């Protein structure tokens, strides 16, 4: 491999193989190290295997001491809590590249908020046949309880997680929008802390955009959408409890913002206001950052068997006495079938061309698309429209004829539930693999985090770079055993 850094025979990079048909973020097509990676690669090139193992153990200890865990649900691990997998070799994004991403993320989320307001009010976008009415009304996440109601500032998706990939053409594509309860931002902050502690020398040699201000920005956004007339709002984070896979994040964010972490049993409704039980009596709550799905937030309105929510919450919300973040009903756009219309939604509401590209998507409920999917299963990724975390995904190129036939039958029974996309060549990034004890290319994506409040937009400078640790795997989700990297956005 050619590069401007001489790799020694015993370097942890000496067995690194470039893959011709994939976009490598660290090396160019000739094998030369990209300019902005030279300093960090030079440092890693000098490390012995024992050095690297010690640094990895140090990083693990940092995560352990912070309590950074995630529940993994796979064939071999049923809800087992483990330390969040972290790779020390950082991902670097240039300022020019980032500025374009940020503009595209803000554009996309502004249009999504306008779309949500419209489908719960005048429905002009449906009347003008930009988006099919049946697609919205058949969604399990479209809530009749939200019809005619306007959240403060007309903001529905206060916090969004936009998943992006870089294809082999070097361009970024939006893979999906996460608009209900997007998770992962606490790992961005924890990754940065671990990186600073473990590799302070190389970190200080780069001019990197900070991420530590996210909790401050999050709290400011939450406060901006408090009910009208509330100047000093009391805000809380609502969690399902310690057995939830993302409980670490819930507690981390509450502590970082200096607000209370509560469960449904800690809150109650009285005369259309929400109160928190405290040692000093009841305290009125103005904003609830909920990490509970719509179905469970109010047993009087949704699932009667829910013990996670607050009876009567939706009544308080519709009266304007409390704000819920994200708004109930945002899942109507979280639907992966609606994703196909986002470019048209952007043009319709903003009269602008989309800055970020969509991945071409087939809706199985459409006759022509259904026929194509049935005939090309081995070349497609098929996904349920209403699941997250990498669950329920069918990878055609890794399937047998029998598996394809079985999944085709599943699609036939409920075509509305599935979409399909071509198998995108996610970019790869240098990642240390413990089994081989060398750096190897692994597929990577990026979850960006966007905040939208009343007259307030903010995109976290970097986001969560997720890594598919299994060789050849395209599924990067932490819930499926993936890992992550610190993401550096350079100042200039």
Automatic annotation (TrEMBL):
It comes from Sporocytophaga myxococcoides. The lineage of its organism: Bacteria, Pseudomonadati, Bacteroidota, Cytophagia, Cytophagales. This is Circularly permuted ATP-grasp type 2 domain-containing protein. It comes from the Bacteria. Residues 90-468 form the Circularly permuted ATP-grasp type domain. Pfam families: CP_ATPgrasp_2 (PF14403). InterPro entries: ATP-dep_Glu-Cys_Ligase-2 (IPR051680), CP_ATPgrasp_2 (IPR025841), UCP005522 (IPR016450).
């Amino acid at each position: 491999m050619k590069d401007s850094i001489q790799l020694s025979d015993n370097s942890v990079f000496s067995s690194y193989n470039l893959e011709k048909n994939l976009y490598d973020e660290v090396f160019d097509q000739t094998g030369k190290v990209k300019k902005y990676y030279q300093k960090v690669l030079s440092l890693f090139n000098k490390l012995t295997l024992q050095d690297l193992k010690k640094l990895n153990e140090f990083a693990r200890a940092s995560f352990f001491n912070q309590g950074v865990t995630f529940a993994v649900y796979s064939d071999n691990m049923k809800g087992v809590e483990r330390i969040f997998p972290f790779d020390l070799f950082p991902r670097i994004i240039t300022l020019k590249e980032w500025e374009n991403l940020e503009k595209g993320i803000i554009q996309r989320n502004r249009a999504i908020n306008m779309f949500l307001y419209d489908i719960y009010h005048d429905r002009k976008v449906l009347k003008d046949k930009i988006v099919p009415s049946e697609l919205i009304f058949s969604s399990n996440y479209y809530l009749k309880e939200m019809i005619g109601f306007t959240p403060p500032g007309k903001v529905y998706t206060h916090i969004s997680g936009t998943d992006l990939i870089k294809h082999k053409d070097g361009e970024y594509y939006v893979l999906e929008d996460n608009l209900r309860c997007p998770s992962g931002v606490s790992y961005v902050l924890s990754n940065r802390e671990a990186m600073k502690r473990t590799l302070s020398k190389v970190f200080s040699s780069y001019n990197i955009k900070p991420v530590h201000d996210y909790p401050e920005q999050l709290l400011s956004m939450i406060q901006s959408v408090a009910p009208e007339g509330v100047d000093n709002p009391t805000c809380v984070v609502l969690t399902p409890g310690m057995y939830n896979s993302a409980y670490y994040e819930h507690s981390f964010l509450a502590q970082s913002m200096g607000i209370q972490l509560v469960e449904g049993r800690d809150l109650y409704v009285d005369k259309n206001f929400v109160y928190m039980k405290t040692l000093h009596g009841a305290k009125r709550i103005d904003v609830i950052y909920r990490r509970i799905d719509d179905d469970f937030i109010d047993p009087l309105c949704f699932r009667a068997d829910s013990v996670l929510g607050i009876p009567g919450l939706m009544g308080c919300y519709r009266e304007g006495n409390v704000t819920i973040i994200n708004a109930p009903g945002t899942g109507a756009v979280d639907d992966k079938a609606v994703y196909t219309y986002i470019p048209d939604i952007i043009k319709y509401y903003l009269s602008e061309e989309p800055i970020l590209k969509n991945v071409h998507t087939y809706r199985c409920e459409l006759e022509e698309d259904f026929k194509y999917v049935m005939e090309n299963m081995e070349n497609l990724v098929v996904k349920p429209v209403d699941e997250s975390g990498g669950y329920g995904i069918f990878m055609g190129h890794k399937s047998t004829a029998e598996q394809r036939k079985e999944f085709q039958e599943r699609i036939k029974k409920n075509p509305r539930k599935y979409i399909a996309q071509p198998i995108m060549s996610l970019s790869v990034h240098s990642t240390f693999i413990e089994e081989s004890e060398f750096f190897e290319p692994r597929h990577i994506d990026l979850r960006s985090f966007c905040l939208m409040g009343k007259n307030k937009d903010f995109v976290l400078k970097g986001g969560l770079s997720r890594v598919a640790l299994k060789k050849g795997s395209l599924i990067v989700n932490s819930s499926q055993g993936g890992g992550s990297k610190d993401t550096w956005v350079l100042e200039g």
